[in-house]
């Protein structure tokens, strides 16, 4: 396993370094602001257009939305709320399962000694090297054969099975950093394994589990191909597929409503990032760097 | 590094150990043609299977023996819309010439009923005790005495029926109506219930217990059980033209416009399928569903022996149980041998350790159950079936490397590989250069707070769901209301259908996400820069190194690990990704934006060619594996 250092330098070092910088701050600020603006253009454009009617978009493309068509959001909500609720439920269930499975196996692989431990762990790691393209079609056939397609389980189980590999990995390296003496002490005090897990392992793992939960939720919320392949019933469909179907629902495309739907579909992600941006960034960098 | 090679060994072992039970069936079949190449409209098989009645567009009703010998042909004045073969060899035929005919087993006309309207269909129980027909412009299902042709009773279903079928014993009659409902009528002529489907009803069939199979224009057959609940639905490739159901309702036969003929088990498993030239028009089982007859749009009648497919469905479970038992016995034998060996070597202490750790294994059980069933099994199944013409539940035949050979001559794949090459080159540039520049810029900001704000601002672009982001970009490219063409118009330049022109579509896709500040890449580079010891830069500066020199000689070499990681991750990502293309262009216009992964998806979903799709998946897997191995062996950095 290659490792790349990700440790942040201590505070005093930073002060010293700033003295050696020569690049004019104004230029950096201008360039970065421009890049941020360009990156966010689609979002600005989405918000701007979501408040216009078709006539306003077609007739006067550049003008401000006047009057703003707030009704677009109501209409869009009526069309996609079902997909959003479905996806959020799948995300919570799937991520919850991943966290539960990963916490257990992460702890076991980090702190327990038993025959076949290395072999079993290796079997999990090996799965990290299997790309999705190899398993996509056979998985579909398997879930179909088990009668799981077109049920919520096809999403939840698929994400639980795949996500726990990464999760176990994450939890294991996190747990490895917890001193073993802590568990020994509890054991000497007469705590059972279950107590140790519930009272020590889980509370200690909260940060890593939060990271895992958020990573998985974002992953499930952004999923497109798998639900497209496995869910037929529009009552069970997820937001990713729902947004593309929604586009074809009207004979004449109502562009404003469409953009309003894109905006609404962002709300769960906005909430996740508002509360858990730190965890997400942690998970992303750790996940990438530990591979 | 040895860790990775051990992983490879583990994977191979796992694939070899996973059991497979390929199912292969050889089916006899025969075919014969009508005297003129006409659309076959309907089929009916007698109870003993000795005679087959065929109705044709060319205004004839034929009676054949099971061997394909013509017994007689009854001439009508217009299209024969339905036939019913009774057990005594006599034949009922309905025609658009407004007559209902009955011929005896010699082909002599017994009676001829003028109903004054076009007769749209006729069906009868084997013994003729229940015979029903429907006519144009009437909401009635009429029941007649097959001996005399006299109407016994009529059932008004309230809407015009378009398809009619009586169960083999006459216990139920199913009438498919123009309102997307199927009405089930019992032996006394009372309506039992109606069952709705999506799409228009194209065909119906009823079993003894009141199960009803309904073929729809939505490329689907729905089976309702004896209580009217949906018991299964079976997707086919095109609009359904005819269905039949075995007497006990266990098997459903379907024909579709594309010429596909299918046999499904009740629970939804595809047991058998074949393709005929031209449209499939009509299907009929014999009594015990061992033989299947299918009529085509060109007047060909096929007789298939499906007994093996059906039998395999029934015995499949048994065979599998036997195979698993043998496998389990073998495993047990190996285990015992291993134990004996261990005993001789005095290594039984391991077993004690295993027993002591039983709760640990129990805790890991859910994890590994999921890993084996939902990860290892599909992966090995994909590797395995890439060598097969794979029809899950149906005929799966070994084809060797044919799927891989086909890939080389598949124009979509070759075109896709070219496109993928371009996507990889541009993708690597997009992945590495802009995030590195931004990371350097942020790194050189003096204020820590500003650094934080810029990072957050870039990460903010992630709040849009990936699909919504793609759809917004698709809209930006819109030839009429897209931002790009409006900007061009603003500057007085002509617009362009960016995604609609094969020459620009791929570049338009590449440009999606401009200015390509990938969050992961940005964060990786940024934390890499922060990790560079200040002393290095300090001393370089004392030696008189300028900014560019520091970036070139210190930053870039020390970021080698990050570069390597991001290159591998994006190579693997780009080869596999087709979601964006699927959403934005679907591979078009023409083949201009195809990639191999997209062709894999289409092979599986549109063409139902699962073996070929698996082979494409395996090919991409191998390429990714090679990239990973090269990465491990040759691109070693100081960090390893």
Mean pLDDT of chain A: 85
Spans of chain A of at least 5 consecutive residues whose pLDDT stays below 50 are 1-20
Number of helices of chain B: 17
List the secondary-structure elements of chain A in sequence, H or E. HHHHHHHHHHHHH
Structural Rg of chain B: 34 Å
SS elements, strand count of chain A: 0
> Please, what is the CATH homologous superfamily of the largest domain in chain B?
YVTN repeat-like/Quinoprotein amine dehydrogenase
Percentage of residues in helical conformation of chain A: over 70%
The rounded distance between the terminal residues' Cα atoms of chain B is 8 Å
CATH topology of the largest domain in chain B: Methylamine Dehydrogenase, Chain H
Task: Give the rounded overall mean pLDDT of chain B.
Answer: 85
CATH class of the largest domain in chain A reads Mainly Alpha
Give the helix/strand class of chain A. Answer: mainly alpha
Gross geometry of chain A: globular
Describe the strand arrangement of the main beta sheet of chain B, using strand numbers. 1-28-27-26
Shape verdict of chain B: elongated
Topology (elements, then pairings):
The complex is a heterodimer of chains A (291) and B (640).
Chain A (H helix, E strand, L loop, with lengths): L10 H8 L6 H26 L3 H6 L11 H41 L5 H12 L3 H14 L6 H25 L3 H9 L4 H29 L3 H6 L8 H11 L5 H11 L1 H24 L1
Chain B lengths: L1 H16 L11 E5 L6 E6 L5 E6 L3 E6 L4 E6 L4 E6 L5 E5 L3 E5 L5 E6 L4 E6 L6 E5 L4 E5 L6 E6 L4 E6 L5 E6 L3 E6 L4 E6 L4 E6 L5 E5 L3 E5 L5 E6 L4 E6 L5 E6 L3 E6 L4 E6 L4 E6 L5 E6 L3 E6 L1 H38 L4 H8 L1 H28 L2 E2 L7 E2 L3 H8 L1 H33 L4 H12 L6 H11 L6 H8 L14 H7 L7 H12 L3 H9 L4 H12 L1 H17 L2 H6 L11 H10 L4 H25 L6
Antiparallel strand pairs in B: 1-28, 2-3, 3-4, 4-5, 6-7, 7-8, 8-9, 10-11, 11-12, 12-13, 14-15, 15-16, 16-17, 18-19, 19-20, 20-21, 22-23, 23-24, 24-25, 26-27, 27-28, 29-30
Keywords (chain B): Cell membrane, Membrane, Signal, Transmembrane, Transmembrane helix, Transport
GO biological process, one term (chain B): transmembrane transport
Organism (chain B): Paenibacillus arenilitoris
């Amino acid at each position: 396993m290659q490792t790349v250092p990700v440790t942040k330098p201590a505070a005093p070092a930073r002060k010293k370094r700033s003295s050696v910088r020569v690049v004019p701050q104004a230029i950096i600020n201008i360039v970065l602001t421009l890049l941020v603006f360009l990156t966010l253009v689609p979002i600005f454009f989405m918000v701007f257009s979501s408040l216009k009617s078709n006539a306003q978009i077609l007739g006067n493309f550049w003008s401000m939305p006047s009057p703003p068509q707030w009704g677009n959001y109501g209409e869009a909500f009526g069309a996609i709320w079902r997909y959003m609720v479905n996806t959020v439920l799948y995300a919570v269930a799937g991520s919850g399962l991943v966290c539960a499975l990963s916490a257990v196996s992460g702890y076991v692989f980090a702190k327990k000694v038993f025959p076949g431990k290395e072999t079993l762990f290796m079997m999990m790691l090996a799965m990290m090297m299997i790309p999705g393209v190899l398993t996509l079609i056979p998985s579909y056939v398997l879930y179909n054969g088990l009668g799981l397609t077109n049920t919520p389980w096809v999403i939840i189980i698929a994400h639980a099975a795949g996500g726990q590999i990464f999760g176990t990995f994450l939890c294991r390296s996190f747990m490895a950093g917890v001193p073993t003496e802590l568990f020994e002490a509890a054991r000497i005090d007469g705590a059972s394994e279950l107590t140790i897990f519930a009272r020590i392992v889980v509370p200690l793992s909260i940060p890593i589990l939060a990271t895992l939960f958020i990573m998985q939720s974002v992953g499930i919320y952004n999923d497109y191909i798998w639900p497209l392949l496995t869910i037929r019933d529009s009552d069970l469909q997820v937001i990713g597929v729902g947004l593309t179907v929604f586009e074809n629902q009207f004979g004449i495309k109502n562009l404003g409503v469409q953009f309003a739907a894109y905006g609404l579909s962002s709300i769960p992600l906005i909430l996740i990032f508002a509360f858990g941006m730190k965890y997400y960034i942690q998970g992303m960098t750790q996940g990438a760097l530990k591979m | 590094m040895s860790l990775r090679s051990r992983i490879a060994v583990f994977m191979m072992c796992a694939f070899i150990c996973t059991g497979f039970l390929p199912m292969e069936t050889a089916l006899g079949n025969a075919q014969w043609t009508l005297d003129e190449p006409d659309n076959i409209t309907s089929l009916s098989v007698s109870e003993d299977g000795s005679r087959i009645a065929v109705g044709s567009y060319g205004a004839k009703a034929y009676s054949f023996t099971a061997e394909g010998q013509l017994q007689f042909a009854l001439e009508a004045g217009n299209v024969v819309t339905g036939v019913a073969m009774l057990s005594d060899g006599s034949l009922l035929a309905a025609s658009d010439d407004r007559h209902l005919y009955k011929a005896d087993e010699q082909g002599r006309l017994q009676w001829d009923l003028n109903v004054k309207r076009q007769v749209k269909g006729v069906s009868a129980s084997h013994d003729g005790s229940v015979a029903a027909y429907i006519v144009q412009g009437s909401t009635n299902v009429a029941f007649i005495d097959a001996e005399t042709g006299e109407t016994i009773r009529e059932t008004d279903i309230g809407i015009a029926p378009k398809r009619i079928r009586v169960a083999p014993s006459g216990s139920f009659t199913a009438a498919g109506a123009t309102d997307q409902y199927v009405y089930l009528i019992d032996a006394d002529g009372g309506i039992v219930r109606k069952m709705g489907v999506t799409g228009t009803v194209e065909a119906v069939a009823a079993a003894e217990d009141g199960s009803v199979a309904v073929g729809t224009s939505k490329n689907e057959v729905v089976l309702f059980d004896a209580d009217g609940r949906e018991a299964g639905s079976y997707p086919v490739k095109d609009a359904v033209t005819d269905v039949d159901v075995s007497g006990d309702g266990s098997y459903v036969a379907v024909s579709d416009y594309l010429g596909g003929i299918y046999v499904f088990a009740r629970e939804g498993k595809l047991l058998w399928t074949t393709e005929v030239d031209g449209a499939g028009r009509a299907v009929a089982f014999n009594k015990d569903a061992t033989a299947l007859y299918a009529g085509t749009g060109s007047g060909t009648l096929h007789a298939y022996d499906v007994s093996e497919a059906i039998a395999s469905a029934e015995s499949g479970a048994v065979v599998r149980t036997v195979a698993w038992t043998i496998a389990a016995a073998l495993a047990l034998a190996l285990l015992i041998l291993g134990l004996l060996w261990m005993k001789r070597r005095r290594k039984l202490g391991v077993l004690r350790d295993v027993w002591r750790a039983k709760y640990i294994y129990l805790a890991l059980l859910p994890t590994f159950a999921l890993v084996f069933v939902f990860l290892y099994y599909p992966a090995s199944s994909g590797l395995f079936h890439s060598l097969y013409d794979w029809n899950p539940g149906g005929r799966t035949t070994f084809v060797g490397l044919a799927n891989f050979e086909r890939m080389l001559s598949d124009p979509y794949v070759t075109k896709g590989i070219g496109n993928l090459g371009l996507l990889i080159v541009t993708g690597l540039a997009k992945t590495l250069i802009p995030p590195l520049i931004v990371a350097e810029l942020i790194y050189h900001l003096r204020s820590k707070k500003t650094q934080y704000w810029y990072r957050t601002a870039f990460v903010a672009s992630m709040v849009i769901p990936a699909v919504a982001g793609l759809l917004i970009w698709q809209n930006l490219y819109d030839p009429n209301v897209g931002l790009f063409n409006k900007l061009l118009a603003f500057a007085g330049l002509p617009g362009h259908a960016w995604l609609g022109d094969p020459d620009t579509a791929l570049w338009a896709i590449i440009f999606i996400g401009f200015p390509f500040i990938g969050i992961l890449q940005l964060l990786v580079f940024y934390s890499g820069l922060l990790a560079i010891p200040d002393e290095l830069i300090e001393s370089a500066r004392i030696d008189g190194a300028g900014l560019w020199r520091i970036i070139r000689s210190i930053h870039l070499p020390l970021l080698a690990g990050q570069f390597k990681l991001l290159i591998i991750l994006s190579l693997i990502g780009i080869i596999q990704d087709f979601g964006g293309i699927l959403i934005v262009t679907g591979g078009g216009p023409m083949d201009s934006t195809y990639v191999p992964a997209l062709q894999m998806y289409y092979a599986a979903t549109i063409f139902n060619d699962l073996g070929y799709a698996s082979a494409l998946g395996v090919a991409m897997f191998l390429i990714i594996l090679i990239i990973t191995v090269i990465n491990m062996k040759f691109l070693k950095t100081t960090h390893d």
